[in-house]
Amino acid sequence: MAMAAEQWVLVEMVQALYEAPAYHLILEGILILWIIRLVFSKTYKLQERSDLTAKEKEELIEEWQPEPLVPPVSKNHPALNYSIVSGPPTHNIVVNGKECINFASFNFLGLLANPRVKAAALASLKKYGVGTCGPRGFYGTFDVHLDLEERLAKFMRTEEAIIYSYGFSTIASAIPAYSKRGDIVFVDSAACFAIQKGLQASRSDIKLFKHNDVADLERLLKEQEIEDQKNPRKARVTRRFIVVEGLYMNTGTVCPLPELVKLKYKYKARIFLEESLSFGVLGEHGRGVTEHYGISIDDIDLISANMENALASVGGFCCGRSFVVDHQRLSGQGYCFSASLPPLLAAAAIEALNIMEEKPGIFAVLKKKCQHIHKSLQGISGLKVVGESLSPALHLQLEESTGSREKDVQQLQEIIIHCMNKGIALTQARYLDKEEKCLPPPSIRIVVTVEQTEEELERAVSTIREAAQAVLL
Amino acid sequence: MNVGVAHSEVNPNTHVMNSRGMWLAYALGAGLLHIVLLSIPFFSAPVAWTLMNIIHNLGMCVFLHAVKGTPFETPDQSGTRLLTHREQLDYGVQFTSSQKFFTISPIILYFLASFYAKYDPTHFILNTTFLLSILIPKMPQHVRIFGINKY
């Protein structure tokens, strides 16, 4: 019965085919032709590359002059004549065999040679060994890492923190994890090299605004707003970020965070704050520039810092809201694809945090010393102080440049050698000249730590003054 | 490229339709949908075929031409954020075999649906509109008509 019914239906179908309307059959004919055309068409790329003729290729090959594998470099290049430090770079540092007072290492809180920190690191070394031999996802997560992340989150009063094993790659991985092609980043022109590399890796549109100039940033944000109104659908899918440093390494100034937060809410951008120099320095308890200004930590979307300065460890961390920081656990390239922080360094960082929490008085001491040296360094003939009075890393630039950067660098180097002979270890601020976006002028970077006594500060100031007079006049 | 194999492709969406067994799986899935529709008792054969045509074309429209970007993060910093799956296939090379297969399959379904509907005018209108709606986005250019779905 079912077979007969099916056959009956089939006969009716074929009959209907013969009685089909003409337009339908014409349409089906066109479709069959289209199928044949599709099946026999060749694959091709949408954008055609221009093909060169053989003759043009030969011409191009003949014209090409290979550059030398190693470009010619002068013998006096600073990277070829470096000073050698024997022993730890603590308060008294032995440079090239000569004992000096250290005004060059970023050891702000003096935790580098702290016996408690060293004991914690040694205990951890005995327990875990030296390295982790694996990234966080492949058996490289130890309890000290999780402890350190918890402690940092609690210290900074955020929901979560994430640890990186190398300070440079912290901000250089954090920025490309959130900002992609088509997004817009407004960044200060004095941003450090790590931020610049992070921005380059993110492939976003970068807009530089003048250093610490909120009016310039507002102008750029307004221009972007006008563009957005022309194309609101595109604006809805572009993300906007503002990347600033808390305490700038290149200029020693503090960013105007309250105004930036106001701009953030007005123009709907997200703020990424890089606190490498200000963590453990600014603020009543060392929590950084947010505590310094009294701004709620929830207003800042991501805080990134490296632990290589005040905490005297290695590596870096990012902290913020849970759902922001969690994203980096899978998208932070430096987190997923690098070995994790050695446990002894994590234990050292935890102990350093303990010390910071037990003795919050050191931040006021450091601040006083910074103000002292800032005042004393004013008025040195030939050198001008660049940096705020509460910045522990100041720059001394030549008041009048000779016109060529090499000669400036040489003069500053002579001042440094002069000071080194008198027992004060200083260094110049070094940059990759060709790679920086806005190359700062050459300068001597002076670092103030809590371990330096008042008389040592005075001695340093007078040595620099004598050296400047001897070299520059 | 097979599923579950280590590869160095930046965007797996580009070659998923070329992977082994994908065409067969798609054909079987379409067959399963048709059997489900046919087993509903009060749909006659023409209605079931037309419904099949409509649902299949709608589904293809959504997954290949409406949804943009990738459901996973790609190492190229979201270069394909604004591209539909069809535009991502084979990194923008046109007229590859899987593209041809997926363009021809709705046409085959249309032929079958019109045959089983005995070339009825109502069914014809429905089937043809949906066929055109799926064939127009399959043109080999990265154009957005009327700016639909551009961002």
UniProtKB/TrEMBL annotation, chain A:
Catalytic activity: octadecanoyl-CoA + L-serine + H(+) = 3-oxoeicosasphinganine + CO2 + CoA; dodecanoyl-CoA + L-serine + H(+) = 3-oxotetradecasphinganine + CO2 + CoA; L-serine + hexadecanoyl-CoA + H(+) = 3-oxosphinganine + CO2 + CoA; tetradecanoyl-CoA + L-serine + H(+) = 3-oxohexadecasphinganine + CO2 + CoA
GO cellular component: endoplasmic reticulum membrane; serine palmitoyltransferase complex
Domain Aminotransferase class I/classII large, chain residue ranges per copy: 99-464
One BP term from GO: sphingomyelin biosynthetic process
Keywords of the record: Acyltransferase, Lipid metabolism, Pyridoxal phosphate, Sphingolipid metabolism, Transferase
Record GO terms (molecular function): pyridoxal phosphate binding; serine C-palmitoyltransferase activity
Highest taxon of source: Eukaryota
Cofactor needs: pyridoxal 5'-phosphate
UniProt keyword Cell membrane, yes or no: no
Annotated pathway: Sphingolipid metabolism; Lipid metabolism; sphingolipid metabolism
Keyword Acyltransferase appears in the UniProt entry: yes
Assigned EC number: 2.3.1.50
Family recorded in the similarity comment: Belongs to the class-II pyridoxal-phosphate-dependent aminotransferase family.
Function: Component of the serine palmitoyltransferase multisubunit enzyme (SPT) that catalyzes the initial and rate-limiting step in sphingolipid biosynthesis by condensing L-serine and activated acyl-CoA (most commonly palmitoyl-CoA) to form long-chain bases. The SPT complex is also composed of SPTLC2 or SPTLC3 and SPTSSA or SPTSSB. Within this complex, the heterodimer with SPTLC2 or SPTLC3 forms the catalytic core. The composition of the serine palmitoyltransferase (SPT) complex determines the substrate preference.
Name used for this protein in its record: Serine palmitoyltransferase 1
Source organism: Mesocricetus auratus
Taxonomic path: Eukaryota, Metazoa, Chordata, Craniata, Vertebrata
Gene expressing this chain: Sptlc1
Automatic annotation (TrEMBL), chain B:
Protein's name according to its UniProt entry: ORM1-like protein 1
Record carries keyword Transmembrane helix: yes
Source organism, top-level taxon: Eukaryota
Encoding gene, per UniProt annotation: LOC101838871
Function statement: Plays an essential role in the homeostatic regulation of sphingolipid de novo biosynthesis by modulating the activity of the serine palmitoyltransferase (SPT) in response to ceramide levels. When complexed to SPT, the binding of ceramides to its N-terminus stabilizes a conformation that block SPT substrate entry, hence preventing SPT catalytic activity. Through this mechanism, maintains ceramide levels at sufficient concentrations for the production of complex sphingolipids, but which prevents the accumulation of ceramides to levels that trigger apoptosis.
Originating species: Mesocricetus auratus
Subunit text: Ceramide-sensitive subunit of the serine palmitoyltransferase (SPT) complex, which is also composed of SPTLC1, SPTLC2/3 and SPTSSA/B.
Compartments it resides in: Membrane
Keywords from the UniProt entry: Membrane, Transmembrane, Transmembrane helix
TM annotation in the entry: 23-43, 101-117
Recorded family membership: Belongs to the ORM family.
Main location: membrane
Organism lineage string: Eukaryota, Metazoa, Chordata, Craniata, Vertebrata
Membrane topology summary: Multi-pass membrane protein
